[in-house]
Amino acid sequence: MLRIYALRLPLSNLSLFSSHSQKPRLNNNYRTMMNYTKAASSQAFKNKKLLFRQLFEKDSSTYTYLLADVAHPEKPALLIDPVDKTVDRDLSLVKELGLKLIYAINTHVHADHVTGTGLIKTKVPSVKSIISKASKSKADLLIEAGDKIHFGDLFLEVRATPGHTLGCVTYVTGDGSDQPQPRMAFTGDALLIRGCGRTDFQGGSAHQLYQSVHSQIFSLPKETLIYPAHDYRGFTVSTVGEEMQYNPRLTKDEEMFKSIMENLNLPYPKMIDIAVPSNMVCGLQDLSVKPVDASSN
Amino acid sequence: MLRIYALRLPLSNLSLFSSHSQKPRLNNNYRTMMNYTKAASSQAFKNKKLLFRQLFEKDSSTYTYLLADVAHPEKPALLIDPVDKTVDRDLSLVKELGLKLIYAINTHVHADHVTGTGLIKTKVPSVKSIISKASKSKADLLIEAGDKIHFGDLFLEVRATPGHTLGCVTYVTGDGSDQPQPRMAFTGDALLIRGCGRTDFQGGSAHQLYQSVHSQIFSLPKETLIYPAHDYRGFTVSTVGEEMQYNPRLTKDEEMFKSIMENLNLPYPKMIDIAVPSNMVCGLQDLSVKPVDASSN
């Protein structure tokens, strides 16, 4: 491999350093690349509107995602899977970036941490909480497969991905020429990087999870970015193509997958008895706003 | 604020959901945005070549960065600030993505963890270790301000940013029309998100750090992305503009900054006596490859 490499490019150690020189080396590979760049330049630059931040909560290894349409005059923003412990951090960032937080969204009823949704609503009452209707939880807005959540001129599309829990959904950035490319899928615990959520609680089903991931996530373009609700090994992002090729569970056939999931021998989730009751009301024991079923419109 | 918002866009909760509909709502704001998108589309789409991954090591809260030119036939890649504990994870990812790792680079001699550079070299002997000449460490390649580190047709430019340690450098993606935009600055511990590294060990100097950040990092375009070596609160990225506005230390004048840094009362770094001697030889106590001074060429 090294030999082939050395033949194709003059990559001796020192030739890679053009010390104190502003002009890139021009060789055949470079010229080929210039042509490539020219071709690529004709594509639309589609991410100018989206401000995106990935945020990590260390105790539960949870990722919270901040998305905003910063090209819109109001800079409307949403948070996906906020955590109670990091609400102040998240709201400070929203304020510093000059965003208007309009939604606090959950991918599902988490069992390992308390959602930040309720706390956010107490601090910013205009924010609306969102969760799936299938989760049987309370929230300001209950969504279903096919719904679109608009923020400015960007939107998330809702895909039902049950299996980790009965009400799990995946939020995917829009499929339009004016939406970010590549698309981004916020998969919750349905699909993790080189893994997936457990299926032994909260209406979980290995059969359903397998079908969900294959029909709703692996059907997206291969370059689609996968942003999960957790990572325990320090990965921050993957792609549909990568998981289709390297996910150690979901590359197996369904029978093998079910066998893997049945034999995980995981301990009882230590936070489940606190987290689930709280998260069933989006972190608000006394939710003052009557739930609205958006999907009926 | 909410009133103004409601006046400008019909953002009642339900109107934001176009349930089961593929066609975005068309209103005046949307049409304005379409014009914006058209204008934005004329800009070059410059990130097609770069594969970028941010990786986290939880014990020391260290970020490792993987960059590769995936448009190049050899997919040459480099790792910035790898950690010994996560070398297997990083090398697996490199392999799965079909990359050819050519460099393992440090921003400085870390005091809180052992670099993964040495371990990487034992596993992939063709990889070259890189650190600054000013660090007085051993490595395959010793770099200085103004040097460029090429990988495929992309490159990193080296900026000297001493102050946390004597030999700290910041690596910045190239300033060319064929390089990623916005630029990305890998700042090590010189500039952290809403913070900076301590200045009381390893030749540290609050005066130098203040000058380094202001002259070498805050002089970059405001949209430049800041990727630090650590974050302890779950942030993953910032921008030059954000830090110029909100960094609680580096927005102060130099005297105030020095006063802050002199009164941090931080404990003695628990890993320093193990990490520094190891990192002075890039994780290899018996470095078989004679150091080469790239800057002399």
Tell me about this structure.
Two copies of one chain form a homodimer. Chain A is an alpha/beta fold and about 300 residues long. Chain A has one domain (about 45-265): Ribonuclease Z/Hydroxyacylglutathione hydrolase-like (Metallo-beta-lactamase, Chain A, 4-Layer Sandwich). Chain A is about 25% helix and about 20% strand. Chain A contains eight helices and 13 strands. Chain A has helices spanning about 1-10, 30-40, 85-95, 115-125, 205-215, 240-245, 255-260, 270-280, and strands spanning about 50-55, 60-70, 75-80, 100-105, 130, 140-145, 150, 155-160, 170-175, 185-190, 225-230, 240, 290-295. In chain A, strands 1-2-3-4-5-6-13 form a seven-stranded mixed beta sheet, with helices on one face. In chain A, a hairpin with an 8-residue loop joins strand 8 (about 155-160) and strand 9. In chain A, helix 5 (about 205-215) crosses helix 7 (about 255-260). Chains A and B meet through helix 1, helix 2, strand 1, helix 3 and strand 7 of A and helix 1, helix 2, strand 1, helix 3 and strand 7 of B. Chains A, B: Keywords: Acetylation, Dioxygenase, Iron, Metal-binding, Mitochondrion, Oxidoreductase, Transit peptide. Chains A, B: This is persulfide dioxygenase. Chains A, B: Belongs to the metallo-beta-lactamase superfamily. Glyoxalase II family.
